[in-house]
Specification:
Oligomer: heterodimer
Strand content of chain B: 15-25%
Largest sheet of chain B: 8 strands, antiparallel
Number of helices of chain B: 6
Shape of chain B: globular
Low-confidence stretches of chain B: 1-5, 28-40
Mean pLDDT of chain A: 52
Order of helices and strands of chain B: EEHHHHEEEEEEEEHHEE
Shape of chain A: flat
Largest sheet of chain A: 4 strands, antiparallel
Mean pLDDT of chain B: 87
CATH architecture of chain B: Roll
Helix content of chain B: 25-40%
CATH superfamily of chain B: ApbE-like domains
Strand order of the largest sheet of chain B: 1-2-3-4-7-10-11-12
Low-confidence stretches of chain A: 1-7, 12-75, 160-178
Radius of gyration of chain B: 19 Å
Strand content of chain A: 15-25%
Helix content of chain A: 25-40%
Order of helices and strands of chain A: HEEEEHEH
Radius of gyration of chain A: 15 Å
Distance between the termini of chain A: 12 Å
Number of strands of chain B: 12
Number of helices of chain A: 3
Chain lengths: 178, 270
C-alpha cells in the first residue's frame, strides 16, 4: 500500500510542477520541467500512519500527520478524513512530497480495497497561481482516478499526458492489490 | 503493500517534461518491489536494473534532444552553433527518420513545427520504444512503458491477458472514450487536451483544429507516435491516410464531438 501512495503522490507532484510551469509560459510546453518534478519514487521513508486495508473493517487509524494542512479549494475533501469515516472505510495517508512549488500530500479513502474518495491534505499555496492550479488539477485527477479504477485499465493514452501518467501509475497499483 | 500479487514491478520517472511509467508484470519471486537501478539475481531485480538503465537513457535523450535546454545538441544544432557531425550520432539517425516520416505524410510531419528546429514529435516515441527494448533485452517478455500517454506494450499484461489501454476523451476530461486491448502493440494519442492547440498544420502555419484527438495503434511506438502527430496535423484527411498505412489503425474524435475509426481498428476494441 505504501507503494500505491508513493506513486500517486509522486505523479501528482509532477503534475503540479508541470502545470505551474506551463501557466507561467502558456504557449511553450516545456520539456525542461523534467528537472523540477518532486522526485518521490524512492521515498522509502515512513508513510505517516499507513493503515492496512486487507480484511480490516475498522475505521482508518491515520492521524493527519501535519497540523498545518492547508485549506484546499475545489469540490473534493480538504484535510484529513481519517477521524470521520463510516465503518468499513479506511484512510491511507501518503507522505509529504516536496516539490519546488511546495509540499503536496494526499489521502485515499478505501472501502473493500477500492478507492472511494481522495482527499488533498497539502498543496502549494504560496501564490494565487498555485491555488488556481489546485482548483484545476486536483478535481480532474481525482475524477480520473475513479474512472481508471472502474475501467480496469493498465494505462491511459491521451494528449493530457501528465494526467495519463498519473492514471497509469494508480491503476497499476490497484491491479497489484487484486 | 498487501500480499498475494504476482510481483509486478513499477516505476514512475519524471523526465522529458512528463512522467514515464514502467510496468513489468513478470517479476514473480521477488521479496519486495525492487527499486530502479538495483542489480541482483532475481527476475525482479534484473527488471529493476533494466528499468534503471532505461531511465538513464531517457535522461540522456532529454539532455541531448530537448529544444528547451540551451546546451542540448538539438538547441545548438538548431542555432547553427555546431554541425551535425559534432552532435551525438543519434541526432543523425533521428533526422533521417524524420525525413522519411515527413515524406510519407506529405509534409504534415515536420521537424520545424513552430518555425524552429524541434524533432520532439519523433523523439519521444522513439525514446520510449527503445526504453522498452532495453527491458526486453534484459530478459523481460512482458512489460509496458507509458511515456505520458504514449504507450509501448510488450507481450501481454501477465497471465495471458492483453494489455488494456484507456483512450482519454479530450472533450470530457477525466473520462475515457473507449478502451483498446492488445499484445505487442503501441498506442499513441495526439490532441489538444490540457496543453491547448500545439500541433501546427505546416501547410497553413495555423494550429490544426479539425480533430480534438487522434489515436494511432501500431506495432512500435516510434512510428505510431510520429504518425499520430502527422494525423492530427492532417485533420479530416487523416482517416484515408492511416487507412493507406499497412499495420496502423486510427480512432479520432473531432472537435465537434463526432468520431471515426479506420476499418481495422475494431480488432483492438474490447
Amino acid at each position: 500500500m505504501r507503494r500505491v501512495i508513493l506513486t500517486i503522490v509522486g505523479t501528482i507532484a509532477g503534475l503540479v510542477a508541470l502545470l505551474s510551469f506551463k501557466s507561467h509560459l502558456p504557449t511553450v510546453p516545456s520539456a525542461s520541467v523534467s528537472n523540477t518534478g518532486g522526485s518521490t519514487s524512492t521515498g522509502g521513508s515512513s508513510t505517516a500512519g499507513s493503515s492496512s486495508t486487507a480484511g480490516t473493517s475498522g475505521t482508518g487509524g491515520s492521524p493527519a500527520p501535519s497540523s498545518s494542512a492547508a485549506t484546499v479549494p475545489g469540490e473534493f475533501p480538504m484535510g484529513s478524513l481519517a477521524g470521520k469515516l463510516p465503518a468499513g472505510e479506511t484512510a491511507v495517508t501518503g507522505h509529504v512530497a516536496t516539490t519546488v512549488y511546495g509540499p503536496v500530500q494526499i489521502q485515499l479513502i478505501m472501502r473493500n480495497s477500492k478507492i472511494v474518495k481522495v482527499a488533498v491534505l497539502q498543496q502549494p499555496m504560496n501564490t494565487a497561481n498555485d491555488i488556481q492550479i489546485g482548483e484545476f488539477a486536483f478535481p480532474k485527477l481525482i475524477g480520473e482516478t475513479l474512472t481508471a479504477q472502474t475501467a480496469k485499465i493498465d494505462a491511459v493514452s491521451g494528449a493530457s499526458y501528465t494526467s495519463a501518467g498519473y492514471i497509469q501509475s494508480l491503476q497499476s497499483a490497484l491491479d497489484n492489490r487484486a | 503493500m498487501t500480499g498475494g500479487q504476482a510481483g509486478r514491478l513499477r516505476h514512475a520517472e519524471h523526465v522529458m517534461g512528463t512522467v514515464v511509467s514502467f510496468d513489468v508484470p513478470a517479476c514473480a519471486g521477488q521479496d519486495g518491489p525492487a527499486r530502479a537501478g538495483e542489480a541482483g539475481g532475481s527476475a525482479g531485480n534484473r527488471a529493476g536494473g533494466a528499468i534503471g538503465q532505461a531511465v538513464r537513457w531517457l535522461h540522456w535523450v532529454d539532455g541531448t534532444f530537448s529544444p528547451y535546454r540551451e546546451d542540448s545538441d538539438v538547441s545548438r544544432f538548431g542555432a547553427g552553433e555546431v554541425s551535425l557531425a559534432q552532435c551525438a550520432p543519434e541526432l543523425t539517425e533521428v533526422l533521417e527518420a524524420c525525413a522519411a516520416v515527413s515524406a510519407l505524410s506529405g509534409g504534415y510531419f515536420t521537424t520545424e513545427p513552430g518555425g524552429r528546429f524541434d524533432p520532439s514529435g519523433y523523439v519521444k516515441g522513439w525514446a520510449i520504444e527503445r526504453a522498452a527494448a532495453m527491458i526486453t533485452a534484459a530478459g523481460s517478455a512482458e512489460h509496458s512503458v507509458n511515456g505520458g500517454g504514449d504507450v509501448q506494450c510488450v507481450g501481454d499484461r501477465g497471465s495471458g491477458q492483453p494489455w488494456r489501454i484507456g483512450i482519454a476523451d479530450p472533450l470530457r476530461p477525466g473520462t475515457l472514450a473507449l478502451v483498446v486491448a492488445g499484445r505487442d502493440f503501441a498506442v499513441a494519442t495526439s490532441g489538444v487536451a490540457e496543453r491547448g492547440p500545439h500541433i501546427v498544420n505546416p501547410h497553413t502555419g495555423h494550429p490544426a483544429t479539425d480533430l480534438a484527438s487522434v489515436t494511432v495503434v501500431g506495432r512500435g511506438l516510434t512510428l505510431t507516435d510520429a504518425y499520430a502527430t502527422a494525423a492530427f496535423a492532417m485533420g479530416s484527411g487523416a482517416r484515408d491516410w492511416v487507412e493507406s498505412l499497412d499495420g496502423y489503425e486510427a480512432f479520432a474524435i473531432t472537435s465537434r464531438g463526432a468520431d471515426w475509426q479506420t476499418s481495422g481498428f475494431r480488432a483492438y476494441l474490447t
